[in-house]
Amino acid sequence: MMSNLFSIFDPSTNLFNLPFNWISTFLGIAFIPYTFWLIPNRHYIFWNFILNKLHNEFKTLLKNNYFQGSTFIFISMFTFILFNNFLGLFPYIFTSTSHLTLSLSISLPLWLSFMIYGWINNSQHMFIHMIPQGTPSILMPFMVLIETISNVIRPGTLAVRLTANMIAGHLLMTLLSGTGPNMNYYMILILVLIQILLLILESAVAIIQSYVIAILSTLYSSEVN
């Protein structure tokens, strides 16, 4: 039962022994040229409004470390994750963000680049960050150990947070939809209403998780400067 349940997240489209499901991850790139020729409408204006809000918020979080274009990587990451989260809500479309392969491929290189940059250019600041101000001398070794562990697990927590949240909603909808054939007409109507509510909830989760990943990555970036 469990293998059948989790098989909904397995790439199933193969051609010449290549998993073509992962191509859906990069479908958003196909829309980039179209946006340059797009006549401004309410959807276009609304999306630009969101991007400008994100830009201003990320610029505030980066504080004195902000320079022209530094928020672009975090806005791009938000857009990429949001697109793939929403794409997975459609039937028969592969949910790439429900795999650690993708989420860890996003979080690990970012974290590594932040750490390498911080330890090379701001070594003293990185050592100071290991021990919070006012820590008693006897607790300093433990604080260094705790801070080191919390730093090392950051890419893992970012990846698992995104993957677990996307898997949980999809599993719940799959479990509920599997009980439909055994219900009467009225129970099926109630089940459909519950599924619609779950779909709305999953849409909210898709937006929130994209925002959380982008915000945390911005905060991690600001810490190394």
UniProtKB/TrEMBL annotation:
Gene Ontology molecular function: proton-transporting ATP synthase activity, rotational mechanism
Keywords: ATP synthesis, CF(0), Hydrogen ion transport, Ion transport, Membrane, Mitochondrion, Transmembrane, Transmembrane helix, Transport
Record InterPro entries: ATP_synth_F0_asu, ATP_synth_F0_asu_AS, ATP_synth_F0_asu_bact/mt, F0_ATP_A_sf
Membrane topology: Multi-pass membrane protein
UniProt cross-references to Pfam families, sorted A to Z: ATP-synt_A
Subcellular localization: Membrane; Mitochondrion inner membrane
Domain of life: Eukaryota
Keyword Mitochondrion recorded: yes
Annotated transmembrane regions: 20-39, 72-94, 100-120, 158-176, 188-216
Keyword Transmembrane helix: yes
PROSITE patterns tied to this protein: ATPASE_A (PS00449)
Broad class of the protein's primary localization: membrane
Cellular compartments per GO CC: mitochondrial inner membrane; proton-transporting ATP synthase complex
Family: Belongs to the ATPase A chain family.
Chain's role: Mitochondrial membrane ATP synthase (F(1)F(0) ATP synthase or Complex V) produces ATP from ADP in the presence of a proton gradient across the membrane which is generated by electron transport complexes of the respiratory chain. F-type ATPases consist of two structural domains, F(1) - containing the extramembraneous catalytic core and F(0) - containing the membrane proton channel, linked together by a central stalk and a peripheral stalk. During catalysis, ATP synthesis in the catalytic domain of F(1) is coupled via a rotary mechanism of the central stalk subunits to proton translocation.
Assembly behavior: F-type ATPases have 2 components, CF(1) - the catalytic core - and CF(0) - the membrane proton channel. CF(1) has five subunits: alpha(3), beta(3), gamma(1), delta(1), epsilon(1). CF(0) has three main subunits: a, b and c.
Protein name per UniProt: ATP synthase subunit a
Gene name of the record: atp6
